[in-house]
Each structure stands twice: as structure tokens, then as C-alpha cells.
Amino acid sequence: MTHYANFAPGIGPCESKAAVYAPWDRSEIGTVDVISREQADQVLANAFAIYQDKSRWLPPAQRIEVLEKTAQLMAERRDELAVEAAREGGKPLPDSQVEVARAIDGMHSCVEVLRTEAGREIPMNLNPASSHHMALTRKYPIGVVLAFSAFNHPLNLIVHQVGPAIASGCPAIVKPALNTPFSCMRFVEMLQEAGLPEDYVQAINADDHAISEQMVGDPRVAFFSFIGSAQVGWMLRSKLAPGARCALEHGGIAPVIMAADADVEDALPLLAKGGFYHAGQVCVSVQRVYAERSLAQSIAEGLAAQGAAMKVGDPTLPDTDVGPLIRPGEVDRVEAWVDEAVAGGAKLISGGQRLSDTSYQPTVLLNPPDDAKVSEHEIFGPVICVYSFDDMDAAIAQANAGPFSFQAAVFSQNLDTALHCYHQLEAATVMINNHTAFRVDWMPFAGLKQSGHGIGGIPYTFEDMQVDKLMVVRSPSL
């Protein structure tokens, strides 16, 4: 079995450990050390000492070298990383292989922003007051970055939080989800192998919410990066010390509008993948499909056929399409929500049954009631709800009614219809003729309303983790 101590120098041995279980069969696959309150304070002291001592700051050339070498190590160990991510997180191996490829590309993106992003000149000599002046900005690291991550992309999310911190020159502390710590620990191990000083990125594990709140509220934290539930994210944001900035990435309901002229044959495999990918445990999974009434039944049946053809099984096997949910309690919750919707009048088109304590059938519901939990909340499971509509604007209003707003989609062959939906949907991103879970790692990725705060995506996180420091020069030669 795997065991990892924390990557945090000078904190001493940990008194307790946490077991890590494979979500597929609940077998124990390893353990990690968990820190105490006193050790958490030392971790913050380590990071803040680097930021205060500018002689310890890494020059850009050294940051580039570390990032490039780490990307090379990741490429050499891509198979090992993919199996590890699948084993601890439950995402099927083919999708975990894609995640690793994205993570490697993300490290290259961190190098690209270092090479291309810089300060700017501020115009002077425009009036008597600014005569004989020159002004320019330079980018400086914002300070200590504290990052809390989620389980569903155990490597790539860490890259999105830690990679830009290294690129921007910020010392970072990263706490992965306790369900999936190994991918993070291996990544930090490779950073150090690539030449990063051991205290520049500290990876820790904690099982006490009080420790998390203690760290978030510490005035030594300059930037807090959080990926997880809205309830926890907004609560932690309220604990930030004055002056600290943050970025929060929560979930959504990912509505899809299917117009009467949609190419259904083209859309069905995209929607099924977007809804059942990683057993629906993605913050922008296809969850609600609003279909013109003449199409709704056939779309629901088509999605059911797509889901029925997917193999639910061990995520470390190459032929598995849908893996387990992260914990047995999540299977209980999904089962209860589906049962409630069916009891309330939803038509069960397919699925609707647990396969084991850890997995649930890909499920399609037609016209769940508006007050069912599957209609009001993010289900975060392998369930797609199809709702029929007669008036598109009424369907858009229904999609906009909730407190979450992240990514949405519209399928139509009519440009005016697509643009109308783009304009009316309350979403940060609207896909046209693609599923809601589409993402590349250099695009902006942001939730609105209760779905988040700030903008994700490597170039945008890199920008957030820096400050513009202005220099104004007065000289008679100017």
C-alpha cells in the first residue's frame, strides 16, 4: 500500500493518519499523514518566510526550468499517473488518461504565460502634470497561495492551482481532497525532483475542518483557491483575512436547450458523454435537457440507449465507460433523489437502480416535477433529466431560475436561435452544438451567482496570483 507523509519541511512527524479507499470496491489502497493545528501554523510560516525574503524568490528562468522538467517527468510516467488517478478517484482509465494529457499540457501553458505575459507602459506626457514622466508596471507575486482541491480531477485540478502559483512566483500550500490525495502528492514529488525547493510548494492533508478554517483565515494567506461545494466555498470565503483575494469554483446545473431543428443524431452521443462521464461527478455535467415537445421523448429514449450501452465497472480497466461514485453515501443520495422524482411523476426511461454499494446505473428521467431535488439541485451523479417545452423562452426562464449559473448549451441549426439562447441564458459560457462539459485548459472557466467567484483557466489564474506594481519616473530627459 502507498503511504505519503506531508511535503512540508520542519513540521515534524504527524500523530495521526487517514486511510484512502478505492471508490470501486472500498479496498484500502494507502494512507496519508494528517497535520495538527500547530503543524498547519508551521506550514504557513514556511511559505510566508519565502515571500518575505525576496532573495529566495525564484527567477522566471528557474520557474520555467522546473515547469518544463516536471512536464517531462509527467509525460514519462503518464501511464502510472493515469492508473493512480483512476484507482483513487474512480474516473475510468481512458478518461483518466485524457486528464493526465491535459495536466501535462497545462504545465506547458504555465510556461507560455510566463513567456508572453508582462507589465505595460502607462501613457504620460499627455498634460502639464505628466510632462517629463514615464510610468510602467511589472508583475509581482501576490503572496502565499493556499489551494484546497476536489476529488473529481485529482491531478488536473492540482495543476490548475499549483502550476500558475509556481509560474507567478508565489509560494503555495495545497490540500487535496482527502479521498484522492495520491495524485497531488506524486505531482509535488515530481516538482521537487525537477528542482523546486522543497518548501516552495507544500502539500498537506487535513481531516479537521477547524484546521482548514484556521489556515484560510490566517493573514499570511494572500490568495485562496478553492474547488468544491458551494456551501463550503462560500463559508470559507467569509473567513478570509482582510485584503486576501480568492477564486471559488463550485457546481452548476448545466442546462441544455434542444431546439426543434437540433441535429439529434449528432447531439445524443455528446449529451450522453457529458452526462454520464465520471458518473456525472463533474461540475458542468449535462444534468438538465430542455427539449422541444416533439423531440423530448425520442431524445430521452436516445440518451437511455446511449447509457445502456456504457459499461459500468472497475475504473482501472480500459473498457470501463462509467465508474463508481466517490463514496457509498453518494449512491444512497442519488438513489433517493431518483426515487423521489419518480414518485412525484417523473417517467423513468432507463436505469434507476443501484448496481452495488458504490455504483449506480446511467439513468434518464423524463419530465421530473419542478420541486423534485433533481430539478432544484446539482445531482452530481449519472442522471440526465429531460424536460419537454412548448415555448423556448419559458424553458430558458426555467433554466435560469436557480441560484447556480456556470456552463450551458444550445443545439440548433439556426444561427438566430443559437444566438438568442446565448444572449438569454444566464451562464458564463454557452456551448453551441456541443455538450456543457467541454473545456480546454486555456479558456476562461467561471461560475456566476452561487456557482463561483473569479475566473479559472491557467492564464486567468496566473493573472490573479500577481499584482501590478507601478513605477513612475520623473526626468528632464523624458
Summarize the structure.
With 478 residues, this protein is an alpha/beta fold. The protein has helices spanning 37-52, 60-76, 78-89, 93-116, 156-168, 182-193, 209-216, 230-237, 264-276, 293-308, 328-343, 373-376, 392-400, 415-424, 458-464, and strands at residues 2-4, 16-21, 28-34, 121-122, 133-141, 144-148, 172-175, 201-203, 221-227, 245-249, 255-258, 288-292, 347-350, 363-366, 383-389, 404-405, 407-411, 429-432, 448-449, 452-453, 466-474. Strand 11, helix 9 (264-276) and strand 12 (288-292) form a beta-alpha-beta unit.
Offer a few descriptive terms:
478 residues; alpha/beta; seven-stranded mixed β-sheet; six-stranded mixed β-sheet; 21 strands; 21% strand
Q: How would you describe what is shown here?
A:
- With 478 residues, the chain is of the alpha/beta class.
- It has two domains: 2-250 and 451-471, Aldehyde Dehydrogenase, Chain A, domain 1 (3-Layer(aba) Sandwich); 255-432, Aldehyde Dehydrogenase, Chain A, domain 2 (3-Layer(aba) Sandwich), CATH 3.40.309.
- The chain has helices at residues 37-52, 60-76, 78-89, 93-116, 156-168, 182-193, 209-216, 230-237, 264-276, 293-308, 328-343, 373-376, 392-400, 415-424, 458-464, and strands at 2-4, 16-21, 28-34, 121-122, 133-141, 144-148, 172-175, 201-203, 221-227, 245-249, 255-258, 288-292, 347-350, 363-366, 383-389, 404-405, 407-411, 429-432, 448-449, 452-453, 466-474.
- The strands form five sheets. A seven-stranded mixed sheet has the order 13-14-15-12-11-17-18, with helices on both faces. It has a six-stranded mixed sheet with strand order 8-7-6-9-10-20, with helices on both faces. Strands 1-3-2 form a three-stranded mixed sheet, with no helix packed on it.
- Helix 2 runs antiparallel to helix 4, helix 2 (60-76) packs across helix 6 (182-193) and helix 5 crosses helix 15.
- The longest helix has 24 residues, at 93-116.
- It is globular.
- The N and C termini lie far apart (67 Å).
